[in-house]
Amino acid sequence: MPAKQITLEEPYIACQNQLGEGCLWDPKTGLLHWVDIKRSQIHTVEPKTGYRSIDDYSDVDEMITSLVLRSDKPGFIGTHTTHLAEFPEATKPTTANPSPIKRTSTPLVGDKSFTIPEKYTKDKEDGTDRFNDGACDALGRFWVGTMGVQPGNRKGQFYRYDVDGKVTTVKEDVGCSNGIGWSPDTKIMYYIDSPRTTILAYDFDLQSGTISNERIFATSDAFDGGVFDGLCMDAEGAVWAARWGSCRVVRYLPDGTLDTEIITPKALNVTCCIFGGDDMQDLYITTASCGETDKSLIPQYPQGGDLFRVRIDGVKGVERFKFAA
């Protein structure tokens, strides 16, 4: 049976991010957050009003690559280019046409500090470039990966950052670490290393925070070009994955069957997705206006960098886990 296809002709918000990524839904506040990596900004929208805000962290001269919500206080834990930091609560949205507001993050220090080891980043031509995507597991540990300066050369890593600041290198030989998610029973972890053009699955031991039995969950064979990027999960245990370079988000059932394709014909590089809304049936999708370089793709794909939203009736998303501190 062919996959169901839904085409999105218009964006929800025409924000034209350079590299929109890392979307988060906060059910407590009813706010959606996402980052524009290249511009070092955190965007926030309140869907009930349409009001937005933009927090600008560009003064630190570091990109923002990922965010997770915190369980014990407002704000976020996230990654700049090479280090972890805490970010204050997002500026309250009060207008539909916001101007960026300058904000400041705080690097984690002491036993809680985490910077990509210099042995990986010292080779500026063929080493580790920067942090990329991250997510928390059900015990509030932060899983975050890096990408190589040349992703095809696989000089990145995948880390587990515990609440007490302990860092474990889970994987090396990573090209570009991207989407991370868990099955509803937390017994399977899904992981995307984009240059491998697959979604990987692992057996996951929640108590120890360890993975084993790597296998391929889904491949890119059904698509003409592109790679997997960010992902999110739904309550049925299906995986929703963005596809960089092929204008779509795809849904895979737990048995690996391709079930649904959400197509964005005017936005080539689709980066991440998350469920939100009062009933968790609205799927939000971030995109990029840039390609492999910073050159804009807007002339060919005029909705690149915009935020999309689509109603997925009958399918409920699940909340992302929060950092346990």
Automatic annotation (TrEMBL):
Keyword 4Fe-4S annotated: no
InterPro entries: 6-blade_b-propeller_TolB-like, SGL, SMP-30
Keywords (A to Z) from UniProt: Metal-binding, Zinc
Domain of life: Eukaryota
One Gene Ontology molecular-function label: calcium ion binding
Binding positions for substrate per the UniProt entry: R130, N132
Family: Belongs to the SMP-30/CGR1 family.
GO biological process: L-ascorbic acid biosynthetic process
Protein name per its UniProtKB record: SMP-30/Gluconolactonase/LRE-like region domain-containing protein
Pfam families, A to Z: SGL
Cofactor: Zn(2+)
Cofactor note: Binds 1 divalent metal cation per subunit.
Lineage, opening ranks: Eukaryota, Fungi, Dikarya, Basidiomycota, Agaricomycotina
Keyword Transcription in record: no
Active site per UniProt: D229
SMP-30/Gluconolactonase/LRE-like region domain location: 19-288
Binding site for a divalent metal cation: E21, N178, D229
